[in-house]
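Side project, low priority. Logging it here so it doesn't get lost.
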Amino acid sequence: MSPHPIPAEAGPLDDDATGIPRYLQLSTLFRRMIESGQWQTGDQIPTVEELAAEYGVARATVRQALGRLDADGLIARFRAKGTFVTYKPQEQLWCEVETDWSGLLLSRPGATIELMSDEAGQQPPVFLQPVGERARSYRRFKRRHWRGGKPFLIAYTYLDEALCKRVKQEDLETKTTLSLLNSIRGVKLGEVRQTLTIGAADVVTARELEIPLNVPVAYVHRSALDSAGKLVMVTDGTYRGDIVRLDMKLR
C-alpha cells in the first residue's frame, strides 16, 4: 500500500462531463496534489493499479497522465521501486503578485522581457465595469516575461497612444508595465486598480507559457487613470500558476 493514500472524495472521471480527456483531468489533479503538498517531495505515490481503481480509468490512462508529470520533472519513475515526487515547491513560488504600489514598481531579479508585437490604433476590450474616460486610441504591446530560461508571464498592455512618443524602445524590453507608465514624463496618476482571478491554461496560453494544457494560471487585470480621469493604461497578464504567490497583510 502506498504511504500516501488517495483523498476520500476521489471518484470516477467522465470525459463527457467536462469535454477534457481523462488523462488530462488526471494529470491536472495529480499536479495539484503535488503542488499543494498532499504528495510531498520524496514520497512514493500510489501505484498505477491503485490510481486506476480509485478513479475508474484504465491503467494506460494513468500511465499517460503520469507521463506528463514525469516530462515536467514533478515525478520520477523507477522500475520495481515505484514513482516518487521530485517537485520542490519552495523553489517554484518566487513570483509575487504585489498588492501595494511600491511593490508593483519593482522588477523581478533575473527576469527579461520579450516584445512579441506592437500595434497602433487599438482599443482595450470592453469590460463589465469599465472605468474612466477612454483615450482616442491605444497602442497594444504583447510581451512575454522570462526567468531562468522559462516564460512565466504573457501580458497585453494598452497604452494611450498620445503618451507613446515619450516611451523609449528599450523601456518596452526592460520595464514592467506600471514601472513603464510611472516613468513617462508629465503623467500624473489618479487611480490604479488590480484584479486577480484564477483559471486554467487554454491551448494558446499553454503553448506560449510552455506549460501543460488546463493547468492553473493566474489572470491579473490592471487599469490606470490619470488625475483627470482618463484611462491611460490597461493590461491583462497571464501568469504560470505554479510560480505565483499572492501575499496580503490583513489588519
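Brief comment: Residues 22-35 form the longest helix (14 residues).
Revisit when time allows.
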